[in-house]
Amino acid sequence: LWTYCYVRRYFLIKFIKQTRFRASELDHLVERTYRKVERSRHAIKQHDRYAQWVSVVCRNTFINFVARRKQVVALKSQHDVAEEPVKMDDVDVNAAALHASLLHAIVQLPPFLQATARMRFIENLSNEEIARIVGKRPATVRAYVHKICTRFRRDKGLKAWAEYMYR
After folding, report:
1. Helices (H), the chain
2. Which of 115, 4, 20 is nearest to 65 (CA)?
3. Residues 73, 133 contacting (CB under 8 angstroms)
4. CA-based Rg of the chain, rounded to a whole angstrom?
5. 29: buried, middle or exposed (CB in 10 Å: 19+, 13-18, 0-12)?
6. Which of 43, 99, 119, 155 is the right S-S partner for 125, CB 3.0 to 4.6 Å?
7. Contact in structure between 131 and 137 (CB atoms under 8 Å)
8. Average pLDDT of the segment spanning 17-40
9. pLDDT, tens digit, 9 for 90 and up, residues 104-135
10. What is the structure's pLDDT at 75?
């Protein structure tokens, strides 16, 4: 009971301070963190450090949540900025070319990273879903995704797209 209350209080304070989060995200984050603590509780050797360990799990989970969260922008926060109309033909061509560059970069990866890259960047699966499919631990999948991103940053085709998108 203490653990659940602590986790709930921790994330509630974070969500109150930053209003850009949704209530459904709070519930999901509390549940996910509590389950993570419950799974790993037996591994703690020093029981007097339990509270500190739970706080570290909460902090790391929140940091990962913020880093991976898809940004939701409210319509009323948008300013009336006159932009050039986007031509749908251009969007389709660019999306297809970017997809082709991504597939080419995936093929260049070592075989043990290719399946994870396809599931993460083509099928948009979460690390937990990928771990379940490939039979690896979520931490291993996160390490694989990190290796994949590092290699993608060096890929000339994807670098060109990054420069094009952020110019």
Report:
1. 2-17, 23-40, 50-68, 88-107, 111-117, 127-134, 138-154, 156-165
2. 20
3. no
4. 20
5. buried
6. 119
7. yes
8. 84
9. 899 999 999 999 998 888 888 889 989 998 89
10. 45
Please report which confidence band the pLDDT of residue 94 belongs to, taking 50, 70 and 90 as the band edges. Answer: low
pLDDT score for 146 = 92
Which of 166 and 160 is assigned the larger pLDDT?
160
Question: pTM (2 decimals)?
Answer: 0.45
* Alpha carbons 159 and 150: distance in angstroms, whole number: 12
Number of residues that make up the chain = 167
Measure CA 5 to chain center: 25
Tokens representing residue 38 in the block: 């419950």
Tell me how far apart the alpha carbons of residues 35 and 154 are, in angstroms, rounded to a whole number. Answer: 37
CA distance linking residue 41 with residue 31, whole number of Å: 15
List all residues 6 or more positions away from 157 whose beta carbon is below 8 Å from its beta carbon: 101, 104, 105
